[in-house]
Specification:
With 295 residues, the chain is α/β, with parallel strands linked by helices. It is built from ten helices and nine strands.
């Protein structure tokens, strides 16, 4: 009787690590283990007890490793991106959420807890896959969460991810005063991970070749959208409401300055990521009345 030749899983992982290392992948061991676990249908934590690979699975793993070596994003190969305490489906046409953005979500959840709000209204602008909105909704089930996105391809992913959740998907331009106009002056928290990379900035192959250009770059200095966003957010927020926006690591002074110049924010601060780089700015809507000349 013919017996299939099984491939030792540990050996397959070592071979994958070698291929990915040679290709310049930043985290070859982690990626090799995640792809192997994906092929086996197991959590990565269970790989130590994983069975050997049959020829079909070994071939599938080699194909995935070869694609990762061509710098296809890991999340496109597995079809999902873990984010905070949720997992979102991703693929061509939508920005892959990054772990550093979880810091923005943690800050936002802390702001809501500090305000002791039972059923807050939260808006996620430039929602993309919906990662931020879904993370907030999972952590605060009583919240009313809106996710705003204008790109048709990204909207497909957002609607797919939001299906079955309490996240309300809104198709529209985040700077359009008509989008969510019925919420003006009532929102407790606005979070946003907008495009912010200055045009012409070198980016990794996974970004250059696969993330949508409009989801990454925003004008010569990377601040085009954030400039337009500040007055729209000021109108959305209730007095005392909070705003958090991710930015490029060169914007640690520029974004807080934009928020100060807007005139309707206070408690403006910038925050660093785990590597010590400027990562996101936060502000609170003035509690005292300021005339909105742009309304």
């Amino acid at each position: 009787m013919h017996t299939e030749q099984l491939i030792n899983t540990s050996r397959a992982i070592r071979e994958a690590v070698a291929v990915l290392s040679a290709a310049g992948v930043a985290s070859p061991r982690v990626d090799a283990e995640i792809l192997t676990a994906h092929v086996l249908g197991l959590p990565r934590s269970k790989l130590a007890l994983a069975p050997d690979l049959d020829p079909a699975r070994a071939g599938r793993l080699r194909d995935l490793v070869a694609a990762r070596a061509r710098r296809v994003p890991l999340q496109h190969l597995t079809g999902v991106a873990p984010f905070h305490h949720v997992e979102v489906a991703v693929g061509p046409g939508v920005f892959v959420p990054r772990p550093e953005t979880e810091l923005l979500v943690e800050w936002g959840l802390g702001a809501l807890s500090g305000a002791v709000l039972f059923s807050p209204v939260v808006v996620d602008l430039c929602s993309g896959s919906g990662a931020i909105a879904l993370a907030v909704a999972a952590a605060r089930p009583a919240a009313t969460v809106y996710a705003v996105e204008r790109d048709p391809a990204a909207l497909e992913w957002l609607r797919r991810n939001a299906s079955g959740s309490n996240v309300r998907v809104v198709a529209g331009d985040v700077t359009d005063p008509g989008v969510l106009a019925d919420l003006d002056g009532t929102v407790d928290l606005v979070l946003c991970n907008p495009p912010y990379v200055p045009a012409g900035t070198p980016v990794p192959p996974e970004v250059a070749g696969f993330d949508p250009y409009p989801a990454v770059f925003s004008g010569e200095d990377g601040l085009d959208l954030i400039r337009d966003l500040a007055p729209r957010v000021a109108r959305l927020l209730r007095p005392g409401g909070w705003f958090g926006v991710e930015h490029d690591d060169t914007h640690g002074e520029a974004v807080p300055a934009l928020l100060r110049a807007e005139g309707r924010f206070e408690a403006i601060a910038d925050h660093r990521d785990l590597a010590g780089r400027p990562r996101f700015a936060t502000a609170q809507r003035l509690r005292t009345h300021v005339t909105d000349s742009s309304s």
